[in-house]
Amino acid sequence: MRDFDVIILGSGPGGLQAAVHAARGKAAVAVLGRMHKSSLFKAHVENYCCMDTTLSGREILEQGRTQAQKFGARFIDEDVLDLRRGEDGRFSIKLESGAVLTAWSLILAMGVSRNRLNVPGERDLLGKGVSYCVECDGNFFRNQVVVVAGNESAACSGALSLLLIAAEVHLIYTELSVSENLAFQVNSSPIHKHPGRKVKAIVGSMGVEKVVLDNGEEIEAAGVFIELGAKGALELATKLDVALDPETMQYIRANKKQETNVPGVYAAGDICGPPWQMAKAVGEGCVAGMEASGYARRMKTGKSGD
Fold first, then answer.
1. Closest by alpha carbon to 40, among 232, 287, 277, 290?
2. Please, is 152 exposed, middle or buried when counting C-beta atoms within 10 Å of its C-beta (0-12, 13-18, 19+)?
3. Secondary structure letter of residue 187 according to DSSP
4. Do 91 and 19 fall within a single domain?
5. Is the peptide bond before 13 cis (omega within 30 degrees of 0)?
6. Domain span at residue 165?
7. C-beta of residue 107 within 8 angstroms of C-beta of residue 15
8. How far apart are CA 178 and CA 100, in angstroms?
9. Rounded-to-10 torsion of CA 137, 36, 74, 99
10. Boundary (domain end) residue, out of 160, 193, 226
11. Do 55 and 193 belong to one domain?
C-alpha cells in the first residue's frame, strides 16, 4: 500500500492541471490513468488563450505531464477498479495490478465515456438488457446469462463481478489489454471467453434475447454489458455516493470550489458537464488541485474545518 495526500483519477488536461497545482502546494500527488485515453490525445487545439499556433493534443498532454512531474507528481499508468473510504477518512484506490493506494483527497477528472459498439440493436435495447454499467445494473440479471463486451479493465473487472451474480458470463474481446494480474484472474476464472471476436448485433424484441458475433456464433443471453476502456467515471463515483446532476444524471455535480457532496472528493473537466473545452477543464483542474491539497493538509494536521 502506498500513501499519498491527493490522488487524481484521469490524466487529461483537467487532471494534469490539478496535478500541477496540488504538487506545487507541497502535496504528495499521484495521477492515475493512461494519457492516450484522453479525448484530447488525438485532437488539435487552436482556440486556447495565449497560444498562437495549432498544437496536437498529444503534445499538450506530454508537456503537461512533464510539467507536473517537475513539481513532484507521480504518474501511474493503470486503470482504477475500485474506490472506498475508510473509517479514518482516507480513500483507498484499487488498481488493475492489484496494488492499493490511499489518499486524503480525490480529484475525479476521468472525462466522460463516449464509447459505443454501434451495432444493430444496441440503441433500441438500451435499458431493456443493454447496459453500460455493471455496477449499476448487474443485480438485475441475477441467475441469468449475460455477455460483456470489451478488451480492457472495465470489461474484465465487470465480468469477474458478474460471476457472483449471473448464472453464466461470456466475455467478448479481440485481445485483452490489461495488467498481467487482471488477465490472470480472467483466464483462470469460469468466464466463457471469446478471444478474437466482436459483437455484430444484439437481438431482441421486448428485451435482449441473444448476441450475434462476427463469426456467426449466437449466444442466448438476457443482458449485454458494453464496457469499453477503463471503468466509467460515473460508475466509480457512485461507489462513493457522489451526487450527479439531477437533470441529466450523466455528470458529477460540483460547486465553484469543484467540491462534490462528499467531503474530500473533487471533480474537474468533462466529467462535470459541457462545454467540452480544454480551457474549462484546465480552469476547473486548477481550482480542484488547490482545494484538494488544502483539504488533505487540514486532514493530516487534524484541522478538518474550513
1. 277
2. buried
3. H
4. yes
5. no
6. 130-226
7. yes
8. 17
9. 40
10. 226
11. no
- How open is the CA angle 186-122-169, to the nearest 5 degrees? 25
Q: Which three cell numbers stand for residue 212?
A: 450475434
| Dist. CA 272–CA 253, nearest whole Å | 6
Indicate the pTM of the whole model. Answer: 0.77
Asked if the structure places residue 149 within a domain, the reply is yes
Give 246-249 contacts, CB < 8 A, sequence gap 24+.
Answer: 248/273
What CATH number does the domain containing 174 carry?
3.50.50.60
pLDDT in tens, 175-217: 998 999 999 999 999 999 999 999 999 999 999 999 999 999 9
At residue 17, the 3 state secondary structure works out as: helix
Are both 57 and 196 inside the same structural domain? no
Q: Which of 211, 226, 241 delimits the end of a domain? A: 226
Say how many domains are in the chain: 2
What does the block give as the cell for 124?
433500441
Note the pLDDT of residue 14: 96
DSSP alpha helix (H) spans, the chain: 13-24, 57-70, 134-137, 153-162, 180-187, 233-239, 278-301
**Quick check: is 118 in a domain?**
no
Are 108 and 255 in the same domain? Answer: yes
pLDDT at 87: 86
